[in-house]
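Protein of interest.
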Amino acid sequence: MKILSLFLITLFYCVNLSIGQNSIQTELEIFVNDPTLKHASISFNLIELDGNKTIESYNPQLILPPASTTKLFSTATALEILGPDFRAETRLYADGEIDSNGVLNGNLWIRGGGDPSLGSKYFNSIDKQHLFLEAWVKEIQTLGIKLISGSVIADASEFGYNGSPDGWNWVDMGNYYGAGPSGLTIYDNLIQLKFKTSPAPNRPTEITSVEPTVPKLVMHNYVLSSQRGGDNSYVYGAPYSMDRFITGTLPVNESEYIVKGSLPDPESQMAYELVRQLLKKNISVEGMSKSVRSHFNTQKKIEYSDKKLIYTHQGAKLIDIINITNHRSINLFAEHMLCLIAYHKTGEGTTKKGLAVLENYWSSRINVSSMRMNDGSGLSRTNAISSENYTNLLAYMAKSKYKDAFFNSLPISGESGTLKSFCRNQSAHGKIHAKSGTMTRIKSYSGYLDGNNGKGYAFAIIVNNFNGSSSIVKKKMERLLNSVINSK
């Protein structure tokens, strides 16, 4: 009798397991055979975290451009290598003596360490973005400095001067989301253009102000007013180029319409901004502002052993930056993650070095042999990552000593971040912690699911070159992931 009971219990469990898996399999088949995805490339993988058992998959090893889910690799690597409490440092140096009259007979140097939080809107309200500069000025005043005979020199060389990662398109680099990483990042490396538009459509617009003030910046404005709603303008411009071209349309009859673009030269801007704050406090700078890229041989490393360290500014904690990166999908912060791990490991904080550090770290832990990354944010369409690469990463991080920090950095379905509208008021509401990715003809999600059966899963889904809108594909993905949540 006991044997029969045990047999029936086992049979019942297997039938329920089969029904659950068949339900997911059925939904997966419906998904991949949908007419909208007839010509699309699809990679899907779903594993049970307990034992890393594959539940369902479709082309799990197919590598595709995944858009912003790329940030999972950047943030996880930074967390593993640097730790959640790491703070990037920006240091002020003097290369001369301060005499009895308060004259610094030399230069003041700003040595960047890749802190992306300096004046960031994600850490400061608009009226407080200058506070870090004011704190620096107070330190300078404490030393009794009233005049600098030389210049304020900004040095962002520790992250190199590529300006943007390889693979970024010309159409992206001038826009706010195409702001590149710098050893000295300031105000999120953004500029705000304030437009006044005509009451009539198809008429020229006027740029009434640019914030912050950028010396020598030339804006070539070809934006027209339009009956069409929303911001349909595009800013074009290469890193370090002081010519910016802006095209497209903005709504008619707007007196103060704000468009954001990327800051051409963050290093120079940092020196300029500090000089402005010094002048406000009546501290003169005879040589005004300079930058290492513009005024020095960047092939030769600046020597600081012969300079006096006068102040060290510590940036925001890494985990706080990671939380914003994953919740708000901030490209700039993700690129900084790569550069920071490179600087920490090699002393050269370039994207190229960061990618090498990332690949080296994961190659000894998970299988990343097929993976190709050319940036840290996913803006590059030359990235190629498979759904299996993602589930391998997620399974590893689920056992990391930083697993809670990583898990909590991810948006929650129906509730927060870029997943606030995903599966809202559906079965998967509140049960998915994941990162989303969206670009033209690219849609992806990757993260963790909490099944109604009490099991935890890791998943990744990437779709390229679908027909129709991104929102339609999103709904089809929601249906598939809801089936996982409801599986027995």
The first strand starts at residue 41 and ends at 48.
